[in-house]
Amino acid sequence: MRYLLVLPLLLFQVAVVLAQGHTVKGKVTDETGTGLPGVTVLLKGTSTAAPTDADGSYTIQTPSGEGTLVFSFISYETQEVAIGNRTTINVSLKTDAKTLDEVVVVGYGVQKKATVTGSISEVQGAAINRSPQPNVSNSLAGRVSGVIINNRGGEPGYDGAEIRVRGLATTGNNDVLIVVDGVPGQIGGLDRLDPNDIESITVLKDASAAVYGNRAANGVILVTTKRGTTGKPTVSYNFNQGFSSPTRLPKFADAATYASILNEIDYYNNTAGGLNQRYTPEEIELFRNGSDPLNYPNTNWLDEVLNSVALQNRQNLSVNGGTENVKYFASLGTVYQDALYKDGATKYKQYNFRTNLDANITDRFSVGLSLSGRQEDRQFPQFGAGGIFWQTYRAYPFIPARYPNGMPSQGVEGGINPVMIVTDAAGLNKNQRLTFNGILRARYDFAFLEGLSVDGFYSVDRGQSFTKSFVKPYLVYSYEGNDTYKPVTVGEPKASLSQIQENTGLLTANIKLNFERHFGDHGINAFVGYEQSENNLEHLEAGRRNFPTILTPELSQGGTGPNDRSNAGWSWIFTRRSYLGRVAYNYKEKYLAELQMRADGSANFPKNSRWGYFPGLSLGWRISEEGWFKNSLPFMNELKLRASYGELGNDNVGSNQFMNNYTFGNQYVIGGEVYPGLNLVKLANPNITWEVAQKTDVGVSGIFLNNFNFEFIYFQQKRKDILANRNASVPNTTGIVNPHGSDALVPSENIGRVDNNGIEATLGFDKNAGDFRYNISGNITYAKNKIVFIDEAPSILDYQRQTGGPMNTSLLYRSIGIFRTQEDLDRYPHPSGAKLGDLIYEDFNKDGKITADDQVRTDLGNIPQIMYGLNLGAEYKGFDLSILFQGQAKVRQYVLPDVGLSGNYFSTWADNRWSPSNPNGSYPRVDTRTGSAVSGGLFPSDFWFYNTAFLRLKNVELGYNLPSQLLSRIKIENVRVFANAFNLATFTKVKDFDPETSSGNAQFYPQQRIINLGVNVKF
After folding, report:
1. Can you give the pTM of this predicted structure?
2. How far is CA 18 from the centre of its chain?
């Protein structure tokens, strides 16, 4: 009986032990004994996992004392340890030979970094996420060599950067091909991707892009989004609150100064009238002292129109996890950007989602499904950003923005008051863009031959843009004296509405047969594939005028007259078909070779030249793997020599050029009926073909003294068969002119040629010294292009020809001073109408007069020939700091503001202008209008050709991870708080505008400086 009582008790104790399972604790360290935080500790074959804390310690519950723990961490070798009923397991992870065994994303696959033979740069998503810039393209600047990035303006929703891989190489289209998760040209592009979703960005710069054939000539950027990992679900929430302000705004002449300027302009036009023809000294003093703000105001229009700070924020919620058979990643994100305008109508809102699911159906068959979408809501006033700043910069300072009673004034011209045009007073322009991307993938590994597999994907992209622009009249007021204000209607007396709907689609299908295997010392990685795609677009627009009321902004409510209605529409479809392949071979991962080939058919070209063939060959030698090298130079951990050559294409040209182009034009009356007529607007070129880039690269890269890494590359590109018009060799005297448009009647031909060459260099150092880790790396790119052939008239002077010089240059007169005395005016040749205070131009051809033959072509343009970056990083216990400097050099921009009677002057000009009372001024005299002035647009000169080189503190971030001991009590894995900034400081010679502008009058929405606070929470 006693044993019967004991038996249940023993069974109960066994059940309790089994229920509790087996607990394993320990610490994970690196080779120096320092604890590693964030290491994933996984019970192999299950989803049971635990991370290490800030000290590298972990605790994991297992069902029993059996099984194997897998320890994995980025840049360290994965290690597996059998539990063997142990309760304490400490592990030391080994570094992964400076990540040489890591893989990098390449075209249609991945490769080990050690065996890559192409010119490839990579940026991790974590680095991009350190920037508070909501536009991903702006976060890449300065981070890698070979990529030249310029942000031309900061308007919310339209703040994307120009990306040029190794600068300009064609007089045609220089756009880089963007590939997202393997889909070339995916609808939605790069700019508005959520940086929290990005795993890495890879740039293919040489023959490594040949596998993209017909679209690879300008370089390829591969974006890889995050995918699920094995382990328990990890929920992450990110919030960023940003405060943006202009990097640089000009200062303007005050009312007293501008009144004096207008007096001077009148004097130059009529010297007999004296210096006070428009304003008396007493009136100028009233402008200055502000004693009569109603009649003699002194308006700072920038203060009236712009706030000092605009708000923005970004949020993201994601979940990541899975088992060995099913992995998932899902995220939701929002972005909000406000504009700088006071009471402004400009807003940008974004909502995005992404789901990446991967599943192993069997040991050999796996599938993946990626779904993502985005809604972009843009709202603007009826004036665009360029128009707003044009009006604001030109506004007279002696006109009030609002009268003392709050009524808005008439502004400068036509009732256009800058404080009103930034609001919704004139109506709203709303644009909503919807994007959907879906990718279904599959892979099957064949059993009959090891290393043989087939994979493919089918992607569906859809884009929709809907624009609704409602224009309505509004009131401003003119002061009539005696406290009387006259209302003035701005715009048409009745409202109007236009709506545009545009639908785009992209279908892409891809299938590949792959073989990857090692035979002893020999490694082969190869594939052959087929791909086809179809782009389509449908456009529809309609409008109504003369709305009886502004309360019903709908098409059906507009005027009913025959002239009150309008509509239009068009559509197009474009297809590509491709055969592609690659073979990569290595011997002992020492001798490397890779051959790529792609055959592309494009609907842009006629049948006889529809197909292009694009090969790429690259070779590499890891000289550091030679025994004699290791013995001779033991401090050199890794050294690789490589070279490549490829021919890549560019089919990004206008369609249907191989046939005559017609439009409906003149109408004809036959038998009392009206018939539309056809106009020939472009002759056919039946021989149109590919633009081809012949790219050659030679490079060396390596690691030495364990902590230093470097890369040096020389590149050369010869671009031929560029589509260009014959501007000179088909003169108008032939009669071949286009009577129905400004575009040439003769077709473009494959006649252009451009060479581009340069160097890239990178040097880095990283060190792990216990709790303190730090790194520094710098990169520089020098890329210079030269026009080998462009159709120019034989009579063009040698020093004015584009041929032989770089693209984006200008013809300018050389200014050599200012006419300060009558003796100067008598001594130097000068244009008719030149006066004291005007610029002196060099008589370049020495013929004793200033004519168009004295213009000289510049040797620089607004695409920098030099781009560089410096990255600094440090970590100490829970703190981390990253700093990025970025700069450009050998770059110029022509900027001539539209001022005079037409608008106000920058203070730099107004305060330093030549005048009878300031004969030593450093700027020329003022004139009626700069566009038609001797010192301005009438004789464009290098006086207005600014050196726009700069050095920026592009990005800085300071973060802190809260102690894990504190967070474990509330079941939170990690909390990181941080502050970061974008464009924090700019060092440049330019004073009145941001040096990255491409605006010829500096009247644009300025680039933004962003100060940001954020938090990341993981559960």
Report:
1. 0.88
2. 57
